Amino acid sequence: MTTSENTSGPTAEETTLTLADGEIHVCQDGPADAPALVLIHGTAASARSWEPMLPLLTGSHRVIRVDLLGCGASGRPDGASYAVADQARRLGDVLDRLGVGRACVVGHSSGGVFASAVAERRPDLVTAVVLIGTGPHMAAYIAKEAELGAASWAELTDDQIRRAISDGFHEGFEIPREYVEQFRDVDLQVFGATSRTIRAFYGEHSLPERLASLGKPLLVLFGEEDRRWNPASAADYRAVPGATVHLLPGLGHSPNLEDPPRTAAPLLTFTEGLRQRAL
Q: Is the pTM of this model over 0.85?
């Protein structure tokens, strides 16, 4: 394990954990003794995608961001498995190594699939689940596949990347250059492998089916202008007993990036409710 302090940005501590099948990059912010909030990025992203929300969360939480294997600053070993179950196992191993006994797991987009899988695999570890722009089942998927025509994002211009990821935001959202740079680092082979395993995971059981049997508090946040998943499908999560479904007017697939304060508000209300119930 290696640790370094970053004094130039919002990250309080960056750690690289060496697991049996690869190195995992972890960022931690906020008080070490505060309730743990684990943020899991989507397929074509990294832990950096959560940076806009950090100032809103670290006052009351120990915020842990993980680059999934194959993403961000984590390793990309030859022959690695990107199956949902394996990524969930790694997430659980990371939290064990960090000494996190209980945590609320938050996933954006396909990150919500991994959050759900961690809750399934490690119910002892997960106190609650938050899904942001995560479709309940593949029937709700409405996005058109982007025609990239390149071996890597590095070969694409900024405008090409913006067009490829535009449906990840509400109509007219001006995608900042820093978001473009995050996507440029995506490994397209990892992206493809991950996309296939996520479809297979959905094919076994929908997320509402999986979560309903766990008895974990659930918060679902969905932009009303989501262009990747049918916003009306958010109602399907009401099949999970006690689930809270919150629609965000004017926002698209990535409310955590489009409007961090409006996204953080219901999330913090939810986690405060968890804290109150635990007292």
A: yes
